[in-house]
Amino acid sequence: MNKRYQVVGIGNAMVDILSHVSDAFLAENDIEKGIMQLVNTDQASALYRKLGPAKEISGGSAANTIAGLAALGARTAYVGKIKDDQLGAIFAHDIRAQDAVYDMELAPADHADETGRCTVMVTPDGERSMHTYLGVSEHLGPDDIDVAMMADTDWIYLEGYRFDGPLSHDAFAKAIAACRGAGGKVSLTLSDPFCVERHRDAFRNMIRDHVDLLFCNHHEMMSMYQMDDLDAAIGAAARECETVVCTVGDQGAYAVQNGRREHAEAVPTKIVDATGAGDLFASGFLYGLTGGFDLLNAAQMGCVAASEVISHIGARPEADLLEEFRTHGLLK
Asked: 275, 244 in Cβ contact below 8 A?
């Protein structure tokens, strides 16, 4: 019997706020140009009030992946914590508008933290300076995991960034137990080399014991296995995990499954905004995998989806990805 969901994502729930600012604005607000900086509630709120016109786009790494899958017609749901506030309403509306199920209980309006956001300030030279505020998304815990939902999906997709939360390890463990106990499978994205540095041992244990599909880029792969040789690192990962997929920027992606290795070429694209490239690669790959396509086709779908999202501002697809797949001969 088919399960209700093909993929359920678990991770941060964030809103990206994109605003054009002057260099003087950065100086006046002590913002270091070109740097990503974590900020607290007061800092995030104060900066938001000072910004001029801004474009607000729902984000969050795993949420971007689920939005991409939902846009492709996959049966999806998302688990990420938001607050009953303006940005929380934007996030919930956007992901539901893609036809992904989002049924999270909101943190109350009087909660000390707000909905997470990444404020992206673009100066006239195109440089991006970011303030990231995790907000209530940081407090995702076991009580937020719906066991019935986890048991009713083919795959769960876990976001490595969320490993920084105090209760998130327990939330992931609960989701994994429910999913695998019902015959489902587990995928994990490593998210960031610094995230790997912080949680290497926990990630390694999870990969060996519970993960069926590992997503990463070449920096994360070499950091995870502490190797300077990418091929050797991929080989080490493949000995621990059934399917390993590693993106390598403009060189495309490598995919290994049960000893079979494939290389998918990148799609030449003018990069407007690289945000979300890995997220949408995972969308394309999971669409191919859950749709019964072979390993190489799935990896090629990932490369096509990634190329679409880097061609414009924002980490959610704007073009019809199914049509993109057809254009590249991956669908009839």
From this structure: no
User: Which amino acid belongs to residue 224?
Assistant: M
Token pair 């539901």: residue? 96
* Tens digit of each residue's pLDDT (9 = 90 or more) over 254-280: 999 988 999 999 999 988 877 789 999
CA quadruple 313, 319, 324, 325: dihedral positive or negative?
positive
Give 190-216 pLDDT, tens digit per residue.
988 888 999 999 999 999 999 999 999
Single out the residue of 131, 139, 161, 172 nearest to residue 61, CA to CA: 161
Residue 17, classed as helix, strand or coil, is strand
| Domain boundaries of the chain, sorted by first residue | 5-14+60-102+137-327
Q: Is the pLDDT of residue 126 over 80?
A: no
Give the separation between CA 302 and CA 286, rounded to whole angstroms.
Answer: 8
Phi, psi at residue 256, to the nearest 5°?
A: -125, 130
Residues whose CB is less than 8 angstroms from the CB of residue 22 and which lie 6 or more positions away in sequence, other chains included: 123, 124
Give the pLDDT confidence score for residue 1 in this predicted structure.
62
C-alpha 126/C-alpha 285 separation (Å) is 31
> Closest Cα partner for 9 from 74, 84, 57?
74
Instruction: Look up tokens 């999202």; give the residue.
Output: 309
Distance CA 61, CA 78 (A): 11
> Going by C-beta distance under 8 Å and a sequence separation of 6 or more, which residues neighbour residue 297?
288, 330
Ranges assigned E (strand) in the chain: 5-10, 14-20, 36-38, 55-59, 76-79, 116-122, 128-133, 153-159, 185-189, 213-217, 243-247, 253-257, 260-264
Q: In what order do the strands lie in the sheet with 55-59?
A: 36-38, 128-133, 116-122, 14-20, 55-59
For β-strands 128-133 and 36-38, DSSP reports them as parallel
CATH class, domain 5-14+60-102+137-327, is alpha beta
What whole-number distance in Å separates Cα of residue 271 and Cα of residue 249?
11
User: Are residues 221 and 187 in contact, defined by beta-carbon separation less than 8 angstroms?
Assistant: no
